[in-house]
Write a structure and sequence with these properties.
The chain is of the alpha+beta class. The chain has 4 domains: 13-17 and 86-171, Reverse transcriptase/Diguanylate cyclase domain (Alpha-Beta Plaits, 2-Layer Sandwich); 21-84, MutS, DNA mismatch repair protein, domain I (3-Layer(aba) Sandwich); 181-233, 5' to 3' exonuclease, C-terminal subdomain (DNA polymerase, domain 1, Orthogonal Bundle), CATH 1.10.150; 250-365, DNA polymerase, Y-family, little finger domain (Dna Ligase, domain 1, 2-Layer Sandwich). It has helices at 21-29, 54-57, 67-73, 84-99, 127-142, 154-161, 177-183, 194-202, 208-213, 216-223, 227-233, 264-285, 317-329, 351-365; strands at 13-18, 38-41, 49-52, 78-80, 105-109, 112-116, 146-151, 169-171, 250-261, 287-298, 303-309, 338-350. A 5-stranded mixed beta sheet has the order 5-6-1-7-8. Strands 9-12-10-11 form a 4-stranded antiparallel beta sheet. Helix 10 (216-223) packs across helix 11 (227-233) and helix 12 (264-285) runs antiparallel to helix 13. The termini are far apart.
């Protein structure tokens, strides 16, 4: 792991990230909200912040924060209900902008994506000029701002996009990459979560430079198959391509109850509503799957999951509900009341593929 040079040939990767996407759309569409702390989500006692404006973030308000905590941190916080159909429509506009510049687009969510422009510079002199053009198009066509990172791999491009938020652009060149990675705390590295960061801290690994100094054998022993990735990013090396065909891994729906639920009848009534909503979402995307996972969050915020892997893909809403119900039954009697219930379908495949497989299976038994 002594080679600090970037991969050859050098790629030109952009990471485009919209600024406070949901909240910015709400402020754009309602001028009375501009310049004020805004949270998208339910403001009730059981609500959760889905997104926060930069004005709200100055008070420490963050996504996934309970609404009550957000209100304590920012008493002037204004809650607005999410309008996901609007967010999806604006996201489609933004992705149309991306497609003008390169076909190699890997969406990460509604509001961010990687773009590989290595072979698609066109009339532009550099990837930086393309990033500037994309940001200008987005502002002109949506009235929103985007931040951009430009570098020679995905890891550094994503880090770069965070350096001058909001409405900024930052470039990390191949010459700068290894030193930039070495200077960062490991908890800033995408791919190193809080638990892994704590484990690294316990080993005296606090920066990219510390990580780089570790022997390969030690990293392998402590972090298994992830060791080579960690060693690489500490040197500014990331060989992962921008994958425009990246498949969705799961699709899920959950609900936070207005009051704690403790009875089996109430839980299964809620599960039926969730399964109906989830299957409608699957139908819309023409997807199904073979693994059904039920998620429960208790009143003490402890989360448990129960999964069922099926031999055949889920074929209907009734099939989904049956599998989810079987998984949920294993949690009774409940150890304490429940505040949230969710269902996720994974091991996804297209519904037409599932139908073909079922037909082939039936044919084979004839």
């Amino acid at each position: 792991m002594s080679d600090l040079s970037p991969p050859d040939p050098v790629r030109r990767i952009l990471h485009i990230d919209m600024d406070a996407f949901y909240a910015s759309i709400e402020q754009r569409d309602d001028p009375s909200l501009r310049g004020k702390p805004v949270a998208v989500g339910r403001g009730e006692a059981r609500g959760v912040v889905a997104a926060a404006s930069y004005e709200a973030r100055r008070y420490g308000v963050r996504s996934a924060m309970p609404s009550t905590m957000a209100k304590r941190r920012c008493p002037e916080l204004i809650f607005v209900k999410p309008r996901f159909e609007i967010y999806r429509a604006v996201s489609a506009q933004i992705h149309d902008v991306f497609a003008r510049y390169t076909p190699l687009i890997q969406p990460l969510s509604l509001d961010e994506a990687y773009l590989d422009v290595t072979d698609h510079l066109g009339a532009y002199g550099s990837a930086t000029e393309i990033a500037q053009a994309i940001r200008a198009d987005i502002r002109a066509e949506t009235g929103l701002t985007a931040s951009a990172g430009v570098s020679y791999n995905r890891f550094l491009a994503k880090l770069a996009s965070e350096q001058k938020k909001p409405d900024g652009l930052f470039v990390i060149t191949p010459r700068q990459g290894p030193a930039f990675a070495a200077s960062l705390p490991v908890e800033c590295f995408h791919g190193i979560g809080p638990a892994t960061a704590r484990k690294m801290h316990a080993l005296g690994i606090r920066t990219g430079a510390d990580l780089r100094a570790c022997a390969d054998g030690m990293l392998k022993a402590r972090f298994g198959s992830s060791a080579s990735f960690y060693a690489g990013i500490s040197r500014g090396i990331d060989h992962r391509p921008v994958n425009p065909d990246r498949q969705r891994k799961s699709i899920g729906t959950e609900t936070t109850f207005d009051r704690d639920i403790a009875s089996q009848d109430e839980m299964f009534a809620a599960l039926e509503r969730i399964a109906q909503k989830l299957w409608a979402s699957c139908d819309k995307r023409h997807l199904t799957g073979r693994t059904v996972t039920v998620k429960v969050k208790y009143t003490d915020f402890r989360i448990v999951t129960r999964a069922r892997s099926l031999s055949d893909p889920v074929s209907s809403e009734k099939d989904l509900l049956t599998s989810a119900g079987t998984a949920l039954e294993t949690l009774f009697p409940l150890s304490r009341p429940v505040r949230l219930l969710g269902v996720t379908l994974s091991a996804l495949l297209a519904q037409d593929q599932a139908t073909e497989r079922t037909q082939l299976a039936l044919f084979d038994t004839c």
